[in-house]
Design brief:
This protein is about 80% helix and about 0% strand. The chain is mostly helical and about 190 residues long. The protein has one domain (about 45-180). It is elongated and about 105 Å long.
Length: about 190
């Protein structure tokens, strides 16, 4: 039995136990911090890779947007291809961590999804190169995001797209209100 141990031995033993416990605790805390830092780094790397992938995909859309066909059937196929490319890019955009950048690119893709409307509305002087210019704006945003610079102000093309989209929404709301209103001959 340890009855004969004096106080200094007990104090030394207690110090060793406490010191060892603190050492283990500090190691656990350090390991948790390292794991979190490694996870954050992986998430940031994946986000950066998503931005780089988005740049490549949007550049492909921009190149295709520049190839405006002259005939009606070619235009329909061109429009469908731009929409298909924009839809294919959406999963990449979801991995972009910066919320403001992600929202800007989602707006660009949403505008490309309305390419027919953007190029047809003569009331708003729609023009055939508007999708190309919208893609240029999206690439500027992605470039700023990868360089960690402030996002650029909306381009004239993006402002025009917003104007046309707002006009389309008003038309849709007006049509729905007319459809819901009681018919005067009813």
């Amino acid at each position: 039995m340890m009855i004969g141990m004096d106080g200094s031995v007990w104090v030394g033993l207690a110090g060793t136990v406490i010191g060892g416990g603190l050492s283990i605790w500090a190691s656990v805390v350090a390991q948790i911090r390292q794991t979190k830092a490694a996870r954050d780094l992986r998430v940031e790397e994946k986000s950066e890779a998503a931005v780089e992938e988005a740049i490549t995909q949007l550049y492909v859309i921009k190149l295709r947007a520049r190839e405006v066909p002259q005939d009606h059937q070619g235009f329909d196929d061109w429009e469908k291809e731009l929409i298909r490319l924009a839809v294919q890019m959406e999963p990449t955009v979801l991995r972009i961590r910066d919320k403001k950048l992600r929202q800007r690119i989602e707006e660009v893709l949403g505008s490309i999804g309305l390419v027919g409307e953007l190029t047809d509305y003569q009331e708003h002087r729609g023009w055939l190169l508007l999708p190309w210019e919208i893609c240029s704006y999206g690439l500027e945003c992605l470039g700023a995001g990868i360089r960690e610079e402030p996002l650029p102000a909306p381009s004239p093309a993006m402002l025009k797209a917003r104007e046309i989209i707002a006009f389309l929404r008003e038309e849709i709301e007006r049509d729905e209100a007319e459809r819901r209103a009681p018919h005067p001959n009813a």
